[in-house]
Structure prediction request, 194 residues.
Amino acid sequence: MKFTATMVLAASLLVAADEPAKMPREAQSRFEPPSGPGAGQKFLGRFVGDWRVSKSFFPRSGEPIRAVGTCRQSMIHDGRFLQSDFVFEQNGKKTTGQGLVGFESESGLFTSVWTDSRQTKMSFRQSRDTFDGERIVLYSKSVEPEGKDARRSKTITHLDANGNTLVHRQYAIGADGEERLMMELVMVREPAKT
Prediction:
């Protein structure tokens, strides 16, 4: 009888040890309330697919510098974020870049982060005004201490009415507030593969 009781206890301990400790759902929700996709995610969902990309960089003087590339965009984390994976080619050299854009339903604001194979820094941007339903307007954000000299910029992204051309323009903002077009991506949707 003692042997059977010992075996039942040992089996119970093994089963309990195999299950990960779980925080009660209510406790986690108090600290991190769940949020679901909203109007911004619905708009970002229209960007999903494969795209041909033409990139133009506009220096202060001289001719624009151009590159071509591709981009695959997909919604991740149950439709909450848009991930964009770019490959560019210029003069036989390839570079890569990755963007991640989210929308906070509570505030109505977009936030983005960009990384690429050309540099080791990350670029952060956030909208200032609530989403107008037609375009995404983001401003550079710095994680540096206040007062540290940082480049200021603004990006505007919009999708044409038929959903097949996506235009992304980045403007440098001077100390006087003047905006200068610095970079433009024109993305044309690839036909769906059958």
The radius of gyration is 23 Å. The beta strands are 49-57, 65-76, 81-90, 93-104, 109-116, 123-126, 135-141, 153-159, 165-173, 179-189.
